[in-house]
UniProtKB/TrEMBL annotation:
It holds the Pfam family SET. Residues 115-290 form the SET domain. PROSITE patterns: SET. InterPro entries: SET_dom, SET_dom_sf, SET_domain_protein. It comes from Gymnopus androsaceus JB14. This is SET domain-containing protein. Residues 1-24 are annotated as: Disordered. The lineage of its organism: Eukaryota, Fungi, Dikarya, Basidiomycota, Agaricomycotina. Residues 8-24 have a biased composition (Polar residues).
Amino acid sequence: MAPKQTRTEGQSSAKKAENTQQWLTSREAQKLSYGVVKNAGVPQDYEQMQTQVQLSSGNKLDYDDSMPIVTTLPNLGLGATLEKFPDGWTECLISGYLKKKIVNTPGFPAAIPRPPIARHRIAESPGKGLGMFAACNIKPGELVLAERPLIIAPRAIFGVRVAGRVPRHYTDEQYRQVTMFERERNLNLVTGRMAPERLEPLMSLANCHLQDGSGPILGIIRTNGFQAEEIRDKANTSESYYSVVCNELSRMNHSCSPNVARHWDTASFSMQIFAVRAIKEGEEITTEYCDLLAPAAQRQAELAPYGISQCVCPSCSNPAVSDPLRARIRVISRKMDDAGGWMNLDFPEKPDVKPLLGDLITIAKEGLEELDEYGYILWELFKTYATLQDSKNMLAYRQKHKAWKAAIYPDDAPEYEAGIDDLLKLMKFGNLSLNKMMKGKGKAA
Ligand SMILES: C[S@@+](CC[C@H](N)C(=O)[O-])C[C@H]1O[C@@H](n2cnc3c(N)ncnc32)[C@H](O)[C@@H]1O
């Protein structure tokens, strides 16, 4: 699943996709086989390899950074039940480095944040299996659901050296079959120690890899795994990333115009989703599995490994209209990168809201409020209206940007708000203090 879990702030979506492993999950998934593979399974002469994975118990931390270990996080002791610990716990196959990083995170393991009332429900989504739906009206920036994963497992084989050990005469497909076979063996070590109340929901999740040689656990992980920027090893290679599989969050279907943003919080060890625009009660809650700024044909290719033969979202149904709009957003990405990111403090010399409002409409039309480009335009509008001394619009865009920021960068929100307030206090337009305007006491000159 597309890994836009956490972001590199201030970079356009396009640049992040190029520079980082932004769309790694879907690309990685394409590297393994999918669909129907004839004669799936390892060749008869294949000899399975020796794994170095260690089973870890308790709070032990003195592992080598590269040591692959199976461990339970947070460690709630033997006999933990959901009744006693409703936030749950995660069975992990991670490196010694990552275990140390997680356990040493300030506040770990904090309680999972919960919305004041349940804002989601799981129900049938016609043509897509199960899906997640809004149980009430949800405002932009609001937390919809936070969930502790059932399992975290590496995106590559761990503790087994496949490269160089697979007989030379094996075809590429046979190599892939060996890779999947060894990954399944690794994963068996994790599920083998899962409590039934965690294992049963995991094994009930959708699996679109039933005929390609993925084992049952790998198939479920490939279908449902999210990637989180924080859950990775030191190196920044495809081998350093992990798949995070949750229970209810795994029921979110794909849309090329998603209405929530995903966020990983290490302290509470939870995956969280926030509304990026208003969501009406009964509306399906969706996330993305592919590069949102890619043209429809490329998105379709990225969705194929998920068994989605044709995405029927409005943008995919009408690429003649949507592709040029998304191409325009890629131009905004370049502008944003040239400007130094979405939170640059340069106020416009020739303030003009028209092109910005046009850009905003383009992004909203495509339902891409989740992108940093949207936050960038909101911020530019805030600054432009401030320069024009239009207090009403300035405040309106500040509020929109605030809600957007709460959804996309929830960890930064308090710090960010304090910074903006300080900035506003410092700014004066003639006799008019922006701080007064913020309190609604002043009038634009
Ligand atoms: C992570 S699961 C989502 C939940 C799933 N629908 C279920 O029943 O548990 C991913 C699978 O859901 C289905 N799916 C997700 N988004 C879809 C879409 N936009 N169109 C059709 N099928 C979709 C595909 O079968 C895909 O392999």
